Protein: 6-phosphogluconate dehydrogenase, decarboxylating
Organism: Corynebacterium glaucum
Amino acid sequence: MTQPANSPETPSPEHADSLAQIGVVGMAVMGSNLARNFVSKGHTVAIYNRSPEKTRAVMEQHGHEGAFIPSETIEDFVASLERPRKAIIMVQAGPATDAVIDQLAAAMDEGDIIIDGGNALFTDTIRRERDVAARGRHFVGAGISGGEEGALNGPSIMPGGPAESWETLGPLLEDISAKVDGEPCVTHIGPDGAGHFVKMVHNGIEYADMQVIGEAYHLLRYAAGIEPAELADIFSEWNEGDLDSYLIEITAEVLRQKDARTGQPFIDVIVDAAGQKGTGRWTVKEALDLGVPVTGIGEAVFARALSSALAQREAAQNIGLPAGDTTTLEALGIERDAFVEDVRRALYASKLVAYAQGFDEINAGSQEYGWGVQPGDLARIWRGGCIIRAKFLNRITEAYERDPELPSLLLDPYFKAELEKGLVDSWRRVVVTATQLGLPVPVFASSLSYYDSLRAKRLPAALIQGQRDFFGAHTYRRVDMEGTFHTAWSGDREELSY
Ligand code: 6PG
């Protein structure tokens, strides 16, 4: 099927005996693994890549795995698809996606479905959906999580777009998604950009989750002096309890790894400057616009930025900002095993805040854009396949089953009891100890402040309102009567009401 579509010797794919139920454009690892996942479930899959060498390589290595229909032109690719045609784009997010959408839309017909499976910015997805719909085709922005392994063996999938497309596409996506307790980790999230918005926040939570694990590691290593091999065992043990999750599991693997070149712990040969491709940053930018405090995710994004400011960090070390590490756990009278348990609990509590904030942002986004996203559904489809998959998501699913309108995850009776049962005391001790030792814990500390702010009866915001009114006549409201007020600060200080 690699011949040109209109070659006189071969029937065009449109007339071939068997057409593909779905197609994948982009044969880098994510795209080829997704295509292999579809064929492993018995589907016929059309594949196409801009440079045909990649398509040929996939056929050479994996052609025997099932029914692929490779094509070397986009027209052939489109012609090899069953109607309504369904094509998933797995190319680098950005202009490459726009180019492929344009080509597909031109070659497709009314009612065909273009799916973008990359990490697109949701506002781009909204724009693309509008443009594609104007050409009579459907467009579905779908977040796909789980990395290369997930794409092959079962990712968590977050499709947006028109409900009509979900009817055709849903069964195919259910086939290839991860399953937890027999339930597929995919659901229709909502119209236009809803799927990519939710995937964006998923990634923001991923950033916070990774950072809190990093902070726990750092404290255990540099406050408690535990070496990586033993830390690997501690994380493996944690993975048996409340913290059971993919990210804790791989943390143990990374810490257990020895560098083959030097024999040192692998963690010690990695430059401590974290990269980022943008989804965490987008989560925070959007949260700022929506007015939702995602402080844990924000600190996690900034922690990556600070880690990468190598010149600044080096200057600070050399010219010597005074170090805080002049004391030790021992000098503070803290016993090692008790500290390890406190750190585990601080990690759990901070992670809970990150999820609570992420869900707040999703609810606010859904409200703003009119998507009708069901938070309980998200917790359910994140239980398997995705990077933030965790046992704890069962608890979140249950929390939203108990109360779909839950004002904050932190207020769910189960989580509230967990926090009050001892998590908070440990959390406070860990933040205090880290501060005394001069070890940075940006997400542990900011999440604790968020928790304390949320439950506070009074906040210093009253003073801020007073200051704003003083210098700018910005007005304030009173606790004891309706209305808007201003005090004539520079005059007789009489209170005026509006
Ligand atoms: C996933 C991941 C995936 C990707 C991240 C990495 O859900 O499968 O989130 O989308 O690995 O975008 O992001 P950074 O490079 O920004 O850490």
User: Anything to note?
Assistant: Residues 1-16 have pLDDT under 50 and may be disordered. The pocket of 6-phosphogluconic acid is lined by residues 119, 145-147, 203, 206, 275-277, 279-280, 386-387 (CB under 6 Å).
